[in-house]
Structures are given as structure tokens and as C-alpha cells.
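hiii so my PI (J.) wants the whole complex modelled not just the main chain, which honestly fair. so below is everything: two entries, each one labled with what it is. i double checked the lines twice but i was tired so who knows lol
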Amino acid sequence: MSDDLPEEFDLIVLGTGFAESCIAAAASRIGKTVLHIDSHDYYGDVWNSFSLEAFNKLLDQPSSSLRNGSYTWHEPAEEAPSWTRETLLEKSRRFSLDLSPRVAYSAGALVQLLIKSNICRYAEFRALDHVCMLYNNELVSVPCSRSDVFNTKTLTMVEKRLLMKFLTACNDYGEDKCNEDALAFRGRTFLEYLKAQRVTDKIATCVMQAIAMCDASSSFETGMQRTQRFLASLGRYGNTPFLFPMYGCGELPQCFCRLCAVFGGIYCLKRSVDDISWTPDAKELLLSSAGKTLRAKHIVCAPGQLPATLAPHYGQLQPHISRGLFIAASPLGNEELNKGGGGVNLLRLLADEGQREACLIQLSHYSGACPAGLYILHLTTPAFSEDPAADLADFTAQLFETNAPQILYSAYFTITAPTNANESAATPIYCTAAPAYELDYDAAIADARHIFSQIYENDDFLPRAPDPEEIVVDGEDPSALNEHSLPEDLRAQLHDLQQAAQQMDIAE
Amino acid sequence: MASRKKSLLKVIILGDSSVGKTSLMNQYVNKRFSNQYKATIGADFCTKEVVVNDRVVTMQIWDTAGQERFQSLGVAFYRGADCCVLVYDVTAPNSFKNLDSWRDEFLIQASPRDPEHFPFVVLGNKVDLDNRQVSTRRAQQWCQSKNDIPYYETSAKEGINVEMAFQTIAKNALEQETEAELINDFPDQIRLNSENNRPGNADNCQC
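here's the output for the full assembly
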């Protein structure tokens, strides 16, 4: 590497995962000098998406943040003899295999942040085709929009009316503070409320599993809140409330990194850090890397990228997320769920009488994450052992016992997290959290926002970046860009948008 | 447009640091040149409407945002490119030598369906300077050896050949599409906020 790298920065960020990239972008956006490095030769760390070949290599070599990796090639199915190990590997680069797959609520934290910051111009999405549930061992689509409810064959007329009535009630909940239900069910569970509405078992499953994503112990308030979140995200983009980033979730950290770079952030991949030390008052941190000492006022680091000398401060690396990844030659579920070459579908699975859950995301080639004719199934659950396949066994059994898709390849791995990720008292380094078990990016964004506000107390987190035409080219003062906070008109527009989303009925 | 043909062309500009990628883009879109060298701060992408074969298309030209400086361009940058512009500085032989690796890098990262016929255009920039080091012949030979890549010698400063080069870029990007009868690979892609963007000029630039 030609080493004309500056030696002094306001902020050095180690690791290009989602939260680190948010922080780097936010700091650069407010005019701080940022160096963003990663020990890997790719962006995204444990949030990245990989080609099939790179993914296998990753599973073969355990690292601090990923271990217990294994993969198996299965005999090509009779119906799809052309997909062999060789033909799959030939198309290696057509795959974007996510380590930490997520979907985003259309009106959720990620989408709001992307719009607010104007980073949305770097990203493209695919609307999820179906939100599914398992009912009597059958995979069925949960009707999302009003027209879905009317057209669905899975519900009877009476059930349709009940569901609409129930959802309308949830949607209106909270507007009337003296709502009878709110008073009657305060402190009780959402399930009790649902039962009191005398909905059928099928509708109860539908609401609990797919819409409110609750378990039996979830409180009435939580259930209502989640149902409302689901409803608020309807009718904005596609047929369901969810979006998936085109080419996989690994694109998202790169969008934030691009913004950071556009505002002057410097990027160095494949650069490892040997040690970090600091002055007694911790006002200046010294980072030694490739025989060079770099100075920074602050350092943010991903748990997997801490230099070996400092890692022990953050405790042991424990299994955090257990992941399964399957490549199949046929999709899950019937034709209805996979029109026109396959759906991008979401399914929440429960086991141990609702005590444990897993999330399944099916991707067809429309997601840009695999070749046409193939499907990727991402299975994710909180880890409770060092054996990801065993952690997921209850869920794979539910999925594959009846109507199993033709699986060509299966892989398992564990994502780790340090036991005291947030205990940074021993060092002045801010350590981000490992990917949490969550559907959307709420926790990751909250983590980034929290760290940012600790470092830059009074600054705005990712204010709107100016559009192309707003930048003056000649004789400009680059620092002037930083005063460009969200203009009044856009602030009003965003506000209207959020209001509209909140008031939206179960729209078409 | 009723057809599913693309009306947006994504063009990416590659090449070593300080060969003039941002200046070329700036000259083409804004007809401006700033002599003051600065690493690409604030350079993002430009959009410009162009007419090619009686068809109006929007060309979106993406700058590297300086991420090439330490070989750290991510795969997201390369996604869905319709044409790749390779730029070198005629006064810097190394920047010419590196065209090979930039081209390879593009083919690996973007992995276009038909790498043999993917449209590249090579620009030898800074021909206004006196201390030229790479001869036209040498550059042309290299371009010929790579499946006849169109070659232009430009000066972003003087505005020499810039318009013509980008017209070729737009034309070749579009032709590749019609030749292969390429319809949009991924219909129904969603861009957030696209409805809510303020009406901007057709020609604008983020650099």
C-alpha cells in the first residue's frame, strides 16, 4: 500500500459492519476527519454478503466473530439434475450469501434513517412478496393488504371480517386514551386480549406468529405496538410491510461507507491493527498498524476487530446467533407463494411451545442474491450452544419434514459476541455490539446512535446529505457543506410522510 | 416508456487517484474545471440527460468518492454498471499500467453477463500538459488488444474531447443493451423516497 495516509484523525473506526459504518458516516457528515479500516479485504465484516466460494472459505477458517462453520453438498435432485456442486460453483459470484440477513419494515428505523440522511440514493430494495406462517404443518401466506384479505382462500368469510375488525381496532388503538380495551387489558398479555376478541384459532396464529410476532408472554401493550408497527408499514411500497435490500444486506454498510467517503472519510480495507494505546488522560489514542502510528481523538471498534491485546477487556466470545443457510432448487411452499419464479418470503417459526423462535427468509433470484431457478433459505435463531445445526434442528424439522424443497447445499455457523461488549470502562475504545437477533435494524441503529452521541454529544446523527444540485463547485469551502442540515421544506415533508404512514389504514 | 428497457444508464469511472476522474465528470456535466487538486471530497455521482439514437436516456455517472485511493472500492459500487470508463493520466505511466488491473477488477467485481463484450471506454486525460509520457500509439495498442476498446485523449481542463467521449460512452452502454435484448434483470426494484425527491435540474452534479 502506498502509504501517504494522514496520521491524525478525529475518529478512527475499525470494522466496516453495519453499526461501525453508520458511526463513520455520521462523524464524516458533521465534518470530522475519519479513517475507516477493516482487517478483511471486503466491506461489512459479519454483516456482509459473500459469493458462494468466498462463503465456503469463510466457513473453513474460523475467526473471532464466526465459528463452528460447516457445509455439505447434497446429491442433485432428480427434478433438477443440472445443479451440481460444479455448476453451483461456476455461478459463485451470482450468489450474495448473507451472514446477518434482515428485512426492513417499510416505515421502520432503517428506512427512516436512509430517507432522513439521503443515503437511500445508494440503495435499492425488493418488496417482500409474502409473510408466511405455518398452520397445521402447512405454509400459508398471511393476508397483509385489504385486497389480500378479501382474495385469500385460506380464510373463511367470517374469519375475514373478524381479522379486518381486529386489525382496524389495533390500528385505532392509542388514539382514544380512555379506550375500554386499553384499560381492561393493561398488565395482561396480548394473547389474552386476542382470545377475548373471540377470533378463530387460525386468526390467532396469524396475528401471533406473523403480524404481532409475539409469544404467549408478550404484554398487551407490546403486542399492540408491534401490530401497529406492522400496519404502519403496509401500503407504502409492496404488498407486504417489508423490504429486502437488492443483492443482500451486505450492500447496506457500503451505502453508509460511501456517504462517509463522499464527505472525505478515508477507506483502507485489508489493514489490521497491532495495538492501541492511549495517553493517561485518554485524550489521544495511538493506533499502530503496519509499522505506522496513527493518532485519533476517538476510536470505535467492532468486537471482532479488537487487537488481541485488548480483546480480553471485553470478555469471552460466546455463541450469539446460530445460522443455517440452504441453497435449494425449489422454493418452500406452494405455487401460490412463489408466482413468477419464486417469492422473497418471510416466515417466523416457533419451537418449545413458543419459548424459542427462528426467522426464515427465502430469497429468489429477484432479490439479486442468487441465480434464477435457485432459492436461498436463511435460518436464524439466538444461539444456546456451540452447535448451530442442533440449535436449529427443531426448526429445520418443521420446515423440511413435509414438502421439503430440493436442497443442494446446506451450511451452518455461529456468530459470536463478547460477554461484556458494552463494558468499555477499562479502555477508552467504543465497542459496537455484534449483530443482534432481530428482524430489522432497530438495535443496530440504536447502538450506532448511542455511541455517536457519547462521542459527539450535541451533534445531529446523520442529518440530510445535500442532493447533487445543492453543491457549489467553484471556490467552495467543503466545510460549508456541513452546515447543510435538513432544509425546512424537507423536514416538513418527512414529517408529513411519517404522519401519513401512521394514519394509514390497512391500505391496498 | 412502455417498454421495460432501461432508461437509466449507470456509468462508473475507474482509474488511479488524481488522473482526473472527478474533473472529467465535472467538465462534462457542469462545463467547469477546478485546477485546485483535492482528493475527491463531495464527489458522488452526476446525472445528465442525453439523446442517443433519438432516445432520451438519463446517464448516471458514478465517481469513486476517493475509495480507490487505498484499493478499497466495495462491490456495491460496481453493481449494475452499464458501462465502465477507464481513465489514466498521459503524464503518469503508472496510471496507464494500472489500467489492466482496473479492468480486471471491474470484470471480477461487476461480473457482467458477457465480459467479452462489456462496453469499456478508455480516456487518456491531461493532454493539455507538456510532459506527456504515454504515447497515443501505446494506448491504442492496449485498447486494441482488449477487444477494441474505444479510446479518447481528453483534457478535462480545456474541455477537449470530453463531450464526444461521453457521447460514445452513452451510445455503447445503450447498444450493449439492445444487442443482448437485455430487459431489466430485476423488475419492481424500489428506490426509497424516489417520489419525494425535489424536482431537480436534469443536469446536476454532486461534485
